[in-house]
Amino acid sequence: MKTIIQGKLATAVATISLVMMLGGLAYAYFTATGSGQGDTSVGTSVPLTITQIPDGSTLGDASFSSVTLVPGGPADYLAISISNPSQASQGIHAVTVSASTASLSAVATYNASHLSPEIQATTGDVTNNGVPVPGCLAAWFEGTSWVAVEGNLLVGGNASVTLGNASNGTPDATSTLSVALKSEGVNQDSCKNATVDLVFVSS
Predict the structure, then answer these.
(1) Within 13 Å, how many C-alpha atoms sit on residue 28's CB side?
(2) Which of 102, 200, 82 shows the shortest CA–CA distance to 152?
(3) Does the bond joining 117 to the residue before it have cis omega, within 30 degrees of 0?
(4) What is 8-26 written as a DSSP string?
């Protein structure tokens, strides 16, 4: 009899233990909502570097033939390389080109060493390596811009693209950039044999 009772007791204990074990795996719960805050940082664009590809360069540079400017003559078409120092891709929609004008400090430095009756420089003059070319006005030079055909031209992170002559290589886009010397109906001798600094601006 004792053995039977002990057997029943053992079975009951085992059953209770199993129920407790199974009960430990099944929790009742309510659904709930919550909220919280955090932050992350977003970088900004990094200025691109634009470098002119010299006229007559190798085919791989997709450059143009050299043109010497004269008043009212043909324009000099320009090829450029645009480099992106950022790790992320950046897009450009347009590029403009213009003749560089002399700064106030450059004008002052030039005029201090070129006293009258020599021609004095002004801030309207073009420059050659930052030095004014007195009497040769930046307004006489006309630049044409380049605009992306569709959307923006993407420049990959730490990469570069070329705007150049499609018939002389394989540029990423055909360049329409050019500069010409307009005929102003006045004496433009001050520009003879000048090498004119150019400024490229992308947007």
Answers:
(1) 0
(2) 82
(3) yes
(4) HHHHHHHHHHHHHHHHTT-
DSSP string covering 99-148, please?
A: E-B--HHHHHHHHHHS-TTSPPP-TTEEEETTEEEEEEEGGGEEEE-EE-
Query: What pLDDT band is residue 19 in, cutting at 50, 70 and 90?
Result: very low
Find out whether 171 and 165 touch, Cβ atoms under 8 Å: yes
**pLDDT tens digit sequence for 87-100:** 999 999 999 999 99
Q: Which of 64, 52, 60 is nearest to 195 (CA)?
A: 52
Q: State the Cα–Cα distance between residues 21 and 89, nearest whole angstrom.
A: 58
Euclidean distance between the first and the last CA atom of the chain, given in angstroms as a whole number: 100
Instruction: Of 57, 118, 44, 52, give the one whose Cα is nearest residue 81.
Output: 52
Domain residue ranges in the chain: 49-202
Residue 168, SS3? helix
How far is 38 from 42, CA to CA, in rounded Å? 14
Q: What is the pLDDT of residues 45-75, one digit of tens each?
A: 899 999 999 998 876 788 999 999 999 999 9
24 — pLDDT class (breaks 50, 70, 90): low
